[in-house]
Amino acid sequence: MAQFGVREIRVNIQTEAALTQWLKPFDVRLFRESSETTVAKLEKHLADLSIKGLSLTEPAVLSRAARALMTTEREHIAGHDEDRLAAIIDLYVRTGIQVHSPGYMGRQFSSTVPLAGVIDFVSSVVNQPSSFYEAGQLPNVVEKIMADELNRFIGWPPDSFAMVTTSGGSLANLTALLAARNDRFPGFWTEGGAACLGQARPAIAVGDDVHYSVSRTAGVMGIGEAQIVRLPLNDEQQIDMDRVRPALDAAERRGLRVFCLVASAGTTSVGAFDPIDRLAGVAAERDIWLHVDGAHGASLLVSDQLRHRLKGIELADSLTWDAHKMMFTPAPCTLLFYREKDKSRRAFRQRASYVFDEEPDSYAALDSGGKTIECTKRPMIMPLWVVWAMYGRALFAEKIEYLCRLTRDVHRILLAEPDFETAHYPESNILCFRYRPGWVRDEDVHRLQVTIRDRIKLQGTFFISKVDVGGVAALRVVMMNHLITEEHFRMLLAEIRAVGQELSGGRQDDQQHVGGRR
Ligand SMILES: *Cc1c(COP(=O)(O)O)cnc(C)c1O
């Protein structure tokens, strides 16, 4: 009997020891220690103002480095090793695009406001998904507050519009177009394409330069890519108003019914703004849903100086607005607005008794799960709201104004450089241009830009992108970081020129054929 007792105790002790090991990662003191290590690393990262582009590591090399930081313990829970954690954070911070460096000029995701990152960290710890009020109470209330705050710049009556957050602009565009399709073709959700048999086929009209996420929706929604009506652009890369009605008439003659017209408020390639007010006129004439893809440029609405670029925004049926681009918050954070509240329920029509209440109470009325593709969704509004709550609108307006002013200034610099050409006048903070000294043949211009871009990327000081404008490649800068000055841009030009001249073999006067050479 006694033996039994002893054995039992021993088992308990063992269990407890095992339990202790198992509980270790949940220890709050360890949490503090790891956080402090991390914050110190990030502080150093943010304080580093050196000019860095992208230093690409071979995937195999990086994979080896990552594996070397993994525990080799397979049987037991490995002990906490703060040094290993520090090395992992170093590796993470060091690789990838350095968005906080003035060398970063190539993409649309932001150098974030550091406080926004802190709040994202809080979100990850408290882990309150925001699709349902009961799970994330503050995020849901704050979504409503932020919707009202931003709607002041759109201008809809406070009680009649709606806003939902989605994980990125691509998803917001898809959601809005689903709502548009279901609104104009009420049978489609249930019957699918059969709902339109014998009738005009559903189609969408877009600017020729529309973001690929919009044209993708045609495939996703079962409309078919062939039913995308591409509207020609003018010299400023905006939808050419003179050719909109003829294009829509031609579509109608082809047996299409355009139910949605998508205007870009800031195209991805050059940041051009389509004339929303005039497109709204056409949409109203023809009973077409007007969606504005403002993923990049809707943020200009918060600036008194720049808001006019979205003139007529109050006439749109829906608007995609990425806060992780020009509102400087961590990705993803997208706001999808609908002019009419009821329309926000059109995108999806489903019953699911485990989440959707038939008669929502005042709490469930705030649930957004019925309006988005996501079920579990990050409380992505929190970083945006906290920065807005702490510092107010002016922080955003002034940073956006600085970035747009800087882009106009560097455009002016380019105009004075005889060996460069600009591809457009910058309406926001995106600028495309080409290195094109007299000795480059027209047919080589395209290749030359691509080669220069690749070289600049490999050199690792500046990170820039490229895009075709009017069918010819151009170098593209996106000014997302307020640390960038004209001086940095002049350095970039010097680097481009040096690369370009090197590609020509340093012999510019003999009309070298440079484009095709490496
Ligand atoms: C970036 C962008 C998108 C895509 O948004 P994500 O948040 O990256 O999914 C869509 N449209 C435009 C105009 C964009 O610039």
From TrEMBL:
SUPFAM superfamilies linked: PLP-dependent transferases
Key words, A-Z: Decarboxylase, Lyase, Pyridoxal phosphate
InterPro entries (UniProt xref): PyrdxlP-dep_de-COase, PyrdxlP-dep_Trfase, PyrdxlP-dep_Trfase_major
Cofactor dependency: pyridoxal 5'-phosphate
Family: Belongs to the group II decarboxylase family.
PANTHER family (alphabetical): CYSTEINE SULFINIC ACID DECARBOXYLASE, GLUTAMATE DECARBOXYLASE-RELATED
Protein's name according to its UniProt entry: Pyridoxal-dependent decarboxylase
Organism: Nonomuraea monospora
